[in-house]
């Protein structure tokens, strides 16, 4: 790799056939089945005759992993009517097997019962739209973890991060073309929330220094990660409000600002730039992947955040990473993660390694995760926009089709969220207006914006989205127009 200071942490049947032809057919069938079983359960070296060693060496036949694989496949095969899943760590029933965990508004032992008059929950950013993709790629994304895997606090080279996972993440960014990585250090964390605090710590003046605490600021509408910086408010940094309050304000020469920028933004899905010219900047690029937005060029900010939650949908694994240009900042952020949790879980890093490799293996092919994700999210956006465009009561943010370097074409919008505005004067609280229509959303006030806005998630299961469309359609159809016509978004 060229000039990659990758690890700043190194410094610190049937009857009886009567005819011979029938016997031949039976024997051929048995032989084919034997080959099939061997292909699935025996390693290539065993099939080639290296089944064991005369001197007592280990056999190539699956042993301890086989039971784990059988258990996983048995649970995955549980029938939940297409409206839920069974998991290995699910609550066991009387038969000792985990039962179905149903999607919202479905119930019963096999999730076949739909709850009548159910409210559509569009609050969470749970990326369940990618679940069908990983079900289609069960074999290449599966991981079997031995009981003795990475028992130590440390991993390769005495570090807390997988060197191989670092390399694969760099490969992925280069292949997608969404970030410059060759001059950056990688720091892993337990999701972007922890990394946010690690980076604020790394960019702030030392607690023992005479300088005042750094002011953490963001431009509205912003994802309220600031709640977390308030929780850890201390001598090093404090929440300083929105950038609008500081753009034209007089400042002391000793003032230190750390500006958070989300690009694409959560909630409005638009690309944003820093506003304050003399601040340290942390750019959250969680959604800067081709299934959510166009990629005009690789980003090259000094400090950048990414997360597997929105890349692959593995929100429960809690894994993210920062790309940091300055070695001292990277070292300080790495030490923060090390001292707080001794590095991201080794089991999680192993699983993410498998996932990243699976994504890389399918790029630009028929099973490309970004093509799949863009197809799902683009379809959802078109369906929602088609209904809302008939409304005078609510509207959506405008997102034009734009050229994407990854797809090498103009791509239609496929945002993770709808940023809904209530247009009627009496609907001053848009969250409440939608709640009356049996739609749970997230108020714009939470994002530092007006209560006339509310965020509607498009990321969840197909069941969730179908129910959301039912409720939005009911809301629009219930409108009483004073005059014919409709307004477009």
Describe this structure in words.
It is a single chain. The chain is α/β, with parallel strands linked by helices and 489 residues long. Helices cover 33% and strands 15% of the residues. A seven-stranded mixed β-sheet has the order 6-12-11-10-9-7-8. A hairpin with a 4-residue loop joins β14 (402-404) and β15.
SSE topology sketch:
Elements: H1 20-41, H2 44-47, H3 64-76, E1 84-86, E2 100-102, E3 106-107, E4 113-114, E5 120-121, H4 131-136, H5 138-141, H6 163-176, E6 185-189, H7 191-203, E7 214-218, H8 226-231, E8 237-242, E9 257-262, E10 280-284, E11 303-307, H9 308-311, E12 320-324, H10 327-341, H11 346-362, H12 369-388, E13 394-395, E14 402-404, E15 409-411, E16 417-422, H13 430-436, E17 439-440, E18 442-443, E19 453-457, H14 462-477
Parallel strand pairs: 5-17, 7-8, 7-9, 9-10, 10-11
Antiparallel strand pairs: 1-2, 3-4, 6-12, 11-12, 13-16, 14-15, 16-19, 18-19
Helix pairs in contact: 6-11, 7-10, 12-14
Q: Work out the helix count.
A: 14
Strand content: 5-15%
Let me know the average pLDDT.
Answer: 85
Secondary structure category? alpha/beta
Which of globular, elongated, flat, extended, rod-shaped describes the shape?
globular
Q: Which oligomerization state do the chains in this entry correspond to?
A: single chain
Features:
globular, 14 helices, 4-stranded antiparallel β-sheet, disordered C terminus, 489 residues, alpha/beta
């Amino acid at each position: 790799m060229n000039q990659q200071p990758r690890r700043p942490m190194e410094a610190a049947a049937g009857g009886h056939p009567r005819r011979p032809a029938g016997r031949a057919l039976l024997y051929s069938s048995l032989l084919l089945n034997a080959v099939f079983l061997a292909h699935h359960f025996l390693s290539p070296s065993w099939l080639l005759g290296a089944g064991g060693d005369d001197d007592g060496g280990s056999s190539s036949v699956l042993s301890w992993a086989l039971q784990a694989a059988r258990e996983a496949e048995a649970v995955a095969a549980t029938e939940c009517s297409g409206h839920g899943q069974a998991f290995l760590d699910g609550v066991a029933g009387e038969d000792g097997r985990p039962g179905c965990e149903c999607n919202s508004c479905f119930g019963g032992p096999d999730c076949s019962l739909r709850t009548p008059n159910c409210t559509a929950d569009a609050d969470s950013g749970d990326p369940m739209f990618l679940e069908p993709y990983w079900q289609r790629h069960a074999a290449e994304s599966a991981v079997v973890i031995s009981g003795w895997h990475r028992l130590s606090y440390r991993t390769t080279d005495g570090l807390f991060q997988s060197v191989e996972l670092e390399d694969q993440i760099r490969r992925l960014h280069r292949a997608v073309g969404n970030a410059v990585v060759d001059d950056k250090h990688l720091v892993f964390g337990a999701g972007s929330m922890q990394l946010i605090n690690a980076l604020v710590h790394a960019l702030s003046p030392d607690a023992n220094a005479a300088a005042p605490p750094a002011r953490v600021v963001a431009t509205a509408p912003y994802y309220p990660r600031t709640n977390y910086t308030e929780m850890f408010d201390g001598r090093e940094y404090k929440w300083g409000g929105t950038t609008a309050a500081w753009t034209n304000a007089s400042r002391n020469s000793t003032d230190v600002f750390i500006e958070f920028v989300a690009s694409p933004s959560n909630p409005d899905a638009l690309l944003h730039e820093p506003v304050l010219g003399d601040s340290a900047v942390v750019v959250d690029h969680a959604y800067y992947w081709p299934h959510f937005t166009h990629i005009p060029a690789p980003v090259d900010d000094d400090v950048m955040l990414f997360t597997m939650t929105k890349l692959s949908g593995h929100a429960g694994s809690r894994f993210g990473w920062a790309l940091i240009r300055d070695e001292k900042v990277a070292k300080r952020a790495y030490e923060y993660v090390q001292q707080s949790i001794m590095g991201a879980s080794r089991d999680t890093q192993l699983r993410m390694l498998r996932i990243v490799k699976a994504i890389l293996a399918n790029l630009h092919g028929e099973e490309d995760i970004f093509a799949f994700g863009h197809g799902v999210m683009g379809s959802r956006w078109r369906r929602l926009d088609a209904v809302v465009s008939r409304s005078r009561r609510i509207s959506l943010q405008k997102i034009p089709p734009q050229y994407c370097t990854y797809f090498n074409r103009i791509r239609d919008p496929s945002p993770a969220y709808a940023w809904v505005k209530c247009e009627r004067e009496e609907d001053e609280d848009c969250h409440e207006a939608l709640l009356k229509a049996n739609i749970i959303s997230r108020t714009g006030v939470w994002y530092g914006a007006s209560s006339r806005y509310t965020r509607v998630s498009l990321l969840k299961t197909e069941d969730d989205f179908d129910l959301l469309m039912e409720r939005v359609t009911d809301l629009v159809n219930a409108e009483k127009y004073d005059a014919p016509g409709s307004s477009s978004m």
